[in-house]
Every structure is written in C-alpha cells, then in structure tokens.
Amino acid sequence: MIAVATVAASVASVAYALTPGIAATGTDTASTAPTSSCAAAGEKRQLRGMWIATVHNLDWPSKTGLSPARQRGEYVKLLDTAARRNFNAVFLQVRPASDAFYRSALEPWSQYLTGRAGGDPGWDPLPFLIDEAHKRGLEFHAWFNPYRAAYDDRISTLPAGHPARVHPEWTVKHEGRLYYNPGLPQVRNHVTSVIKDVVSRYDVDGVHFDDYFYPYPGGGTAFADSAAFRRYGNGKKLAGWRRENVNKLVAQVSKAVHGTKPYVKFGISPFGIWRNRTNDPDGSNTQGMSAYDMIYADAKAWIKARTVDYVMPQIYWPRGLVIADYKVLVPWWAKTVRGTGVDLYIGQALYQVGTGGPWSKPGEMPAHLTLNRKYPEVKGDVYFSAKQVQNNPLKVMDRLADAHYARPALLPLISSMPKGTPAAPTGVKAEGGSLVWAAQPGARAYAVYRTAEPDGCATADGRNLVAVIPAGGSPAYRLPSGGVFHVTALDRLHNESAPTSARITLP
C-alpha cells in the first residue's frame, strides 16, 4: 500500500498532499510557484518524429491488397515503435501522387492500398491513423506531394474522374512521369483545395510537404512549361518565375490551413542545400545541388515571409563530407531561422546507416544530435523512415535512446501558433500504486515531473520529466518510486498549465 504524507507531517485521513505554497486541505489547487521565471534546462521541448512513406509501399502498408485488419496491425506496430522510442510526432504520406489514403471527392484512392488506382479499400484509413497516433501521444502530420500527378505519364490509364484525366491541360509529361504544372493558377487552386479538404474533415495536427517541387534533374530533359511561362511569366526570367510559382503555392496553402484551423501547423522539408556560397554569398560552404537553382525551392523566402511554421531540411550527409558537410549545414540553417519565429527541425537519413563510409559507424547519427545541441535553433529531428526506426540499423536507435531520448519530451511551442494556458489538473492523488488525477476538458495530454524535494522550478527542467500521458479515459502514471510529483495539463499544441503537485511516499 502507498502512504502519502504532507511535507510537514503525516495526515492519515488525507489520500495525498500538496507541496508548499498550496494548502494541504485535501483539495488540490495549482501551484503558485513562479515557473515562468525559471531557467529552462534538459531539453524539455523537442520534436522527435519519423516519416511514414506510403509511396511504393516503402513503410506502410507493406504491400498492396492487405485486408484492413492487416493494414491496421502493421500501422499500430510502427506507432508502438515510435512511442517506445519516446517520439512525439509522425509524418504520414496521405497523398503520394494526386491520390488519397482517405475517402475523397477530389482525388482517387491510392493504388498503394489495393494495388489499383481508384480501388476502394473498404474503409477510410485516415480517422484510424490519426486516432491511434493521438492515443500514443504522437502528433499526426498529413504529408502531401503537391505536384506529382502520376508515376506513369499515360493519362488514359488513370481512373475516370482523376483530375489529370479531367484536366490534361494542367499536366506536363516529363521523363516518364506526369506532373501538375506549378505555373498554372488552376493547379495551385486544386492542390490547395485538396489540402483544405483534409484539414477541414480530419483531426490532423499538421500539413507537411517534402522536397519535391519542380522535378529533380534527371535525364536532362527540359520541363515543358513554356506555354504557361508565355502566358503568366510577365517578363520575368524563367527560373525566377518558377520560384515565384512555388512561393505562391506555399503562401496559398499556408493561408488556407491556418484560416481553416489556426492550430494546424504547416511546414516543409526542403533539400538540405539552399544555395552554395560559390553561387550566392548567403549560401552555405557546400558544393552540392542547389534547391534554389535546380528545383526552384526557395526556403529562405518562405522563412522570411513566415509562410511556414517550420522548416525541416533534409541534411542527409555525414560529418566531414566536403560537398555537403553536416557540420557546415546545421549552423547555416540555424543562422537562417534565427530570430524569424520559424522553427527548425533536422531531417535525418536513418536509411543511410550501415550503407558504408561514415555511415558504417554506429556513432555517426548520435553525433549529429550531439552537434545539434550547440545550436538552440535546432528544436528536434525527424527520421527517414519508419521502417528504419523499426529495424534499428547498427543498433543506432538504441544509442539514440540512451544518449538523447531516455526521457520523453514536450512538443516545441511555435511562435506563430495559438497561445494559451490550460486549466491545471485536479484530484492528484496516489491510488492503487499509481498517480491519478481528474481528466481536464480540452487536455490532449498530461506531463508528469518528479523531484526528490519540493521545487518551484521543477517543470522547467526536462530532466525532471518522467512521462507524457495521453488524454483519454482516467489518466494515470504507474509509480515506480516515491518523491514529489508535479502534473501539468497540455493542450494539443502542448501549451502547458501550472503544475499541481503532491509528495508520494512508498512503503
């Protein structure tokens, strides 16, 4: 049996006790400790996520034609892995190529569900995908590819009603694939409508683009958008016009997302090199492909315009690589977002681990996160991809767990997102070997901190954070030891309440 004592003296008739600053009356109230003036420590807030790729069945589902039960079972295993690793976000590809992993009146079912584009899988996966993520304390970001229309350029093979089949004038055939033309206002409107539809109907936490804008250089074929350029170019140079087209889409999507649900985040994971210093004095000291010049993705423009809430550059190279050194690119991106209010997370190439060179060393990836700690602008990491998180190549995920993810973390607070202070938990007490409290309306989760003695700054230090408990049912934390426990309520953005605290003494 667990006994609970007041700080001053044992009170047998009270089931729990409150720390100093709160009257020990048997009815708890929020602490009045000045936590806002406490110095933060211990990486309390950090995004930890993984991409779940559906294209070509890379991560989920493992193959086409699985029963809904098999699809659900595979997905839950991926989420359980993420939760076990103390992750707090997943980025799932819901639109690989003008198709849908959800029931849509605008685009057909994805071929990666049933094996046939437009084939009804017999259920709408997205509510389940979102709910299961939330049950495990994971944010769900819906990942869209904006311009890829099909992996085959034969329009006639697309399902009836496919937007590219209805509007072939929107498309460009390029090196065997079909793309929507970014230079057409109709295309931008359609993409925005698709995304707004998802944000309106589903409880997503974010909208996410990866690095695919204009096609990457391939066989050297020119992208055939000259007719659109003649009509809409307005005297600009081709490259500048293309970048402006992408910038317009980003701004339009940002406005639609935030106008629909202000709390839904919008961010992009650009190619890791914006420009090289040899081409632009503001560029990085690198020698690789320039996203600005080759795929017309101007991440600096999005950051400056605040049309993204975060950027997540894919810095998929090891330390010391001359053309693209991780040690060079992280400080460059940190400097680029500094003072802008746009969050910075790093896209990590977990899929490279074990492939040779520096990636054959199990310490390479953990060293990336150690380096990130030098730059306060870096607020987390996301791994490509879920299958590798599950496979744990070279036991790297175990190393990350020991050195960086031993404790849970709250989500970073993005400055552009709504602010608020949830109501503090009530009814905090020990019961049946667990710390329990009353569920709070509007709470997405609860944070539990532990200190040896009362500490007015306990919740400012991530080293005290022992659990993040998703809301739902009767919230509880299994007590492994005694101490002073501090419980806060978190809304969906992880705005945090004042703590309610109690000293627990184990027999």
Automatic annotation (TrEMBL):
- Which GO molecular-function terms appear in the entry? hydrolase activity
**Regions annotated as coiled coil:** none
Pfam families found in the cross-reference section: GHL10 (PF02638)
Can you tell which superkingdom this protein's organism belongs to?
Bacteria
Signal peptide (residue range): 1-17
Q: Which UniProt keywords apply?
A: Hydrolase, Signal
Glycosyl hydrolase-like domain location, by residue? 46-355
Q: Which PANTHER family match?
A: GLYCOSYL HYDROLASE DIGH
Q: Which named protein is this?
A: Glycosyl hydrolase
Q: Could you tell me which species this protein originates from?
A: Acrocarpospora corrugata
Species lineage: Bacteria, Bacillati, Actinomycetota, Actinomycetes, Streptosporangiales
